[in-house]
Amino acid sequence: MNLKQELQQMNNRLDKLRRKLAGAQERGDKAIAGQATQEIETLTKKINKVKSQQKRQMGKKGADVKSLAFNRVLTKAEQADMGKLKKSVKGLVVVHPMTALGREMGIKEVTGFAPKAF
Length: 118
Prior knowledge:
mainly alpha; 3 strands; about 10% strand
């Protein structure tokens, strides 16, 4: 299971626990409320751990892409025929500004990274 799916499952479980806690507090059931509070704390720690791991991976991937020797903004024509461009340029990595990698790298336009000029 990848980190994104794992994080989603943990967030869903956290949401259920918060609803369970609210219901227990309404009823005045201190035992279940205490147990739910403890589970919420442990789950929150796990979620933070996965998020930091995800951020580390994204930073490493961004550094790998930035280390490629050549980069430039892609024209609209090149973006329209991406398949042809990827076949003609060996090792091309295209980064879109709206993806997680693009936001991490601070890119404002669709940019191509490659080992050699294209």
